[in-house]
Amino acid sequence: MKTRSSVNVIKQHKILLLGRMALMERNTTWPLSLFPGNHSHTNGSTCSRDNVLKTVVFPVLYSFLFLVGLLLNAVAVWVFFRIPSKSHFIIYLKNIVVADVIMTFTFPFKVLSDSNLASTGLRIFVCRVSSVLFYLTMYISILFFGLISIDRCRKTLTPFRGTTAARLARRKLLSGAIWTFLLVLSLPNVILTRKTPTSPYFKCSNLKTEGGLYWHEVVNHVCQVIFWSNLVTVIVCYTLITKELYRSYARSAGGTVSGESTQKPHQAKRKMNANVFLVLAVFFVCFVPFHFARVPYTLSQTQRVLFDCKLKLFFFQLKESTLFLSSLNSVLDPLIYFFLCKSFRTTLFKTLQLPPGTCSRLTGRGSDTDTGSNALRNSSACA
């Protein structure tokens, strides 16, 4: 009897142990790991990333971002289709619109995957396609932000230099080359993510071949170069823009007589100064935090001995939070179109049957009229 009871107790303990192991396995997650440096590893249930922040908070935020981004970018596409590509700035903005639309359509897949509502097939699609497109469009936007900064700097420093058909053609070729380069760069991430998952609790890295993991590292380094080189470009360009606008404002203020009639032009110029730096603000809010957070996050994944589980989880959550800031780019870019592009505002107001001076308090009438110096006008005008 004692032997039988002992056997029963052992069986019960085995059943309980198997149940706990199954529960622990269900708590392991498969983080999105695809384009640049999201190649992560988990150490079992103690390092589980399934928490309220990942499975509830971010899916809700991305759902809201999808609805707002879809509305704003639909309006942007609708307006830009009515605007001819008559300047470098408009060409760059149209490319950013396309990138934002593609990024916006990746949000529902991220919502389903993060909230653990996606089927195995949909999760494979996220690993192979959706995440690749998300990061592809992010770095396309970063590159065009750098080009916009160069264009704004050129318009500020040499305001009388015109735009020719040959220059516009070269900018279109440059835009096509950027898309082609990044598409070719990211395509192997799709092709080489083809392994069949051996468990329903797989990570995206489990689907990659050996060549896919190597190419993943190559793409990671290329994306780092893209970001940091464009960060330097943006800082240098806006430093030069700041100096030129300060000189222009000082000359204009020194040549006027103080009085009530000169206050409105000066207020408009100050508004224009603020609008010029909108590109800089969006770049720093959306892209800089993510790339700074990726440095300790990547270390926590590659140097596992130096980081305990709690620290790894913290850096993972920091990376996901800053990644959401990068996603905000898709809804903040329409602000750039509206405040910095006169053609966009004009077309939008005509379509909505609003007077041209609408929102002049926000945009500054200097960008719509001939008020102010050439440097001020050209730094914020779309043409």
UniProtKB/TrEMBL annotation:
Recorded GO cellular component terms are:
plasma membrane
Residue stretches making up the G-protein coupled receptors family 1 profile domain: 72-337
Q: Which GO terms describe its molecular function?
A: G protein-coupled purinergic nucleotide receptor activity
Q: This chain belongs to which protein, by name?
A: G-protein coupled receptors family 1 profile domain-containing protein
What PROSITE patterns does this protein map onto?
A: G_PROTEIN_RECEP_F1_2 (PS50262)
Q: Where exactly are the transmembrane stretches of this chain?
A: 60-81, 93-112, 132-152, 173-192, 218-241, 274-292, 321-340
- Domain of life according to the entry: Eukaryota
Which residue windows does the record flag with biased composition (Polar residues)?
Answer: 369-383
Q: Which organism encodes this protein?
A: Perca fluviatilis
What subcellular compartments does it reside in? Cell membrane
Annotated region (Disordered) at 363-383
Supply the alphabetized keyword list.
Cell membrane, G-protein coupled receptor, Glycoprotein, Membrane, Receptor, Transducer, Transmembrane, Transmembrane helix
